[in-house]
Design goal:
six-stranded mixed sheet; mainly beta; 295 residues; globular; 0% helix
Length: 295
Amino acid sequence: CSRQFKYVYRGHNIYTDQMPCFRVLNDGKTLFGFLESRNETKVPLDYNDKEYYASYCKVSAVYNDGLDWKDLGENSEGPSRRHTNVDKGAAGYVATFPSGEVVVGKTLKSDYVVKILNSYGELPAGTNWAKDWMKALPEPGYWGTLEADGPQTLFVAMHSDSSKGLQIARYWLNHRIDAEQGKVSDDAFYLGTDDGAETYIRVSRTADNLVLHCNSSPEVRSIEFRLCVPGGQKIVRNTISGRESELRIPLASLDNPAPGDYICVFAVLSSEIESRTFTAAKVSDPLTWQRIRMR
């Protein structure tokens, strides 16, 4: 990583870029790191006329194209491609999915928060580093971590200040899936509620229909779908009960998308006590919905 010398404090060199976590991205050549930077500020406190130092932490992202890393020694700098001190936080961590998405996590004011980046380890278009962090665990703590433990699943863990134990949560990655003719997709969209209702939504297609295959738990009361093509004005709405497992949507009602075209999908799962949709999806904005690609 690129160490940035600050100053000598009480005889010690103070460096940033601590607690590095690195992953090789799916292109096989980019090494992406998420780092903590300790920033020192002189604070004039009246303690026997001495100067004391307060510190705060920020996170930085650093990239290297190619895996031939050289010993930096004590003073030389690393890759110039980096985003320095992009947001407050400490103890950065990185996980990658087989499909390419990168997830970063950090501790922010004792909360563990996460953000999804694209397959290049960069922010998706229209977002910035300071926004859209998701609180991943309910209780405050420290020393968080995350790891992808399946093609679409991620676990997050962190110490709990209140219970003095370990809090663990598991998340599902929703991303674009493909609708192939005569074959049900291996990937699925996932929706779940706190009372145990959950469904896995897989897709296929026929010559005339888009088919949604729903594998739901008994707690599911209904699933409401809205579908449209990107930029289209026509939105198809349909609802199935939790006992139904298949929904056919005529392709003609979606302006007959061709192979390679996309369909935007919004879904609301309802149980007896609550309803859930995809994280960050807005019913009024199809560009925030999940995508199905026709094959």
